[in-house]
Specification:
It is a single chain. The chain is an alpha+beta fold and 105 residues long. It has one domain. Helices cover 31% and strands 21% of the residues. The strands form 3 sheets. A two-stranded antiparallel sheet has the order 1-2. The chain has a two-stranded antiparallel sheet with strand order 3-4. The two termini are 15 Å apart.
Protein backbone atom coordinates (compact mmCIF):
# COMPACT_ATOMS: atom_id res chain seq x y z
CA UNK A 1 0.00 0.00 0.00
CA UNK A 2 1.29 3.45 -0.94
CA UNK A 3 1.23 5.99 1.86
CA UNK A 4 1.16 9.65 1.05
CA UNK A 5 2.51 12.68 2.86
CA UNK A 6 0.87 16.05 3.12
CA UNK A 7 3.16 18.51 1.35
CA UNK A 8 3.24 22.25 1.05
CA UNK A 9 3.17 23.23 -2.63
CA UNK A 10 4.90 26.49 -1.70
CA UNK A 11 7.11 25.77 1.32
CA UNK A 12 7.24 27.88 4.47
CA UNK A 13 10.67 29.04 3.31
CA UNK A 14 9.02 30.74 0.32
CA UNK A 15 6.07 32.15 2.28
CA UNK A 16 3.68 29.22 1.85
CA UNK A 17 0.98 28.72 4.42
CA UNK A 18 -0.72 25.67 5.87
CA UNK A 19 -4.03 26.23 4.10
CA UNK A 20 -5.96 23.89 1.79
CA UNK A 21 -4.99 25.85 -1.34
CA UNK A 22 -1.30 25.21 -0.58
CA UNK A 23 -1.47 21.54 0.42
CA UNK A 24 -1.38 18.39 -1.66
CA UNK A 25 -0.81 14.69 -1.14
CA UNK A 26 2.59 13.51 -2.38
CA UNK A 27 4.36 10.20 -2.31
CA UNK A 28 7.39 10.24 0.01
CA UNK A 29 9.81 9.97 -2.94
CA UNK A 30 8.33 13.01 -4.69
CA UNK A 31 8.04 14.99 -1.49
CA UNK A 32 11.67 14.44 -0.52
CA UNK A 33 12.85 15.11 -4.08
CA UNK A 34 11.01 18.42 -4.20
CA UNK A 35 12.03 19.55 -0.74
CA UNK A 36 11.46 23.28 -0.40
CA UNK A 37 12.09 23.91 -4.12
CA UNK A 38 9.45 25.65 -6.21
CA UNK A 39 11.12 25.18 -9.60
CA UNK A 40 14.33 24.50 -11.50
CA UNK A 41 16.20 25.39 -14.65
CA UNK A 42 16.14 23.24 -17.75
CA UNK A 43 18.66 23.30 -20.62
CA UNK A 44 18.75 27.09 -20.79
CA UNK A 45 20.25 27.81 -17.39
CA UNK A 46 19.03 31.42 -17.46
CA UNK A 47 15.32 30.58 -17.36
CA UNK A 48 13.70 29.48 -14.12
CA UNK A 49 10.69 27.16 -14.55
CA UNK A 50 8.14 26.63 -11.80
CA UNK A 51 6.92 23.16 -10.88
CA UNK A 52 3.45 21.86 -11.64
CA UNK A 53 0.94 23.08 -9.06
CA UNK A 54 -1.86 20.54 -8.61
CA UNK A 55 -4.14 23.25 -7.19
CA UNK A 56 -3.76 25.56 -10.20
CA UNK A 57 -2.71 23.50 -13.22
CA UNK A 58 -4.44 20.78 -15.23
CA UNK A 59 -2.42 17.53 -15.19
CA UNK A 60 -3.37 16.61 -18.77
CA UNK A 61 -2.16 19.97 -20.07
CA UNK A 62 1.35 19.37 -18.73
CA UNK A 63 1.77 15.57 -18.82
CA UNK A 64 0.77 12.43 -20.64
CA UNK A 65 0.98 8.83 -19.56
CA UNK A 66 2.46 6.41 -22.12
CA UNK A 67 3.32 2.81 -21.28
CA UNK A 68 3.98 3.70 -17.66
CA UNK A 69 6.10 6.74 -18.44
CA UNK A 70 5.02 10.22 -17.42
CA UNK A 71 5.98 12.46 -20.34
CA UNK A 72 6.05 16.24 -20.25
CA UNK A 73 4.09 18.38 -22.69
CA UNK A 74 5.25 21.77 -21.37
CA UNK A 75 8.26 23.31 -19.66
CA UNK A 76 6.37 23.13 -16.35
CA UNK A 77 5.90 19.41 -16.98
CA UNK A 78 9.57 18.96 -17.92
CA UNK A 79 10.76 20.74 -14.76
CA UNK A 80 8.48 18.60 -12.60
CA UNK A 81 9.46 15.32 -14.28
CA UNK A 82 13.14 16.24 -13.89
CA UNK A 83 13.11 17.08 -10.17
CA UNK A 84 10.55 14.50 -9.02
CA UNK A 85 12.31 11.82 -11.09
CA UNK A 86 9.01 10.31 -12.22
CA UNK A 87 10.58 7.89 -14.68
CA UNK A 88 13.11 5.93 -12.68
CA UNK A 89 12.75 2.26 -13.62
CA UNK A 90 11.29 1.12 -10.28
CA UNK A 91 8.72 3.92 -10.39
CA UNK A 92 7.65 2.97 -13.92
CA UNK A 93 7.29 -0.68 -12.92
CA UNK A 94 5.22 0.24 -9.87
CA UNK A 95 3.05 2.53 -12.01
CA UNK A 96 2.48 -0.28 -14.54
CA UNK A 97 1.35 -2.59 -11.73
CA UNK A 98 -1.08 0.06 -10.49
CA UNK A 99 -2.40 0.56 -14.02
CA UNK A 100 -2.93 -3.21 -14.42
CA UNK A 101 -4.78 -3.25 -11.08
CA UNK A 102 -7.06 -0.47 -12.32
CA UNK A 103 -6.07 2.00 -9.60
CA UNK A 104 -3.91 4.41 -11.60
CA UNK A 105 -4.42 7.15 -12.56
Amino acid sequence: MVKFQLEHIISFKHGGKTILENLAYACPICNSGKGSDIGTVLEDEDIFVRFFNPRKHDWFEHFELKEGLILSKTTIGAATVKILNFNRLERILERLELIDAGVYP
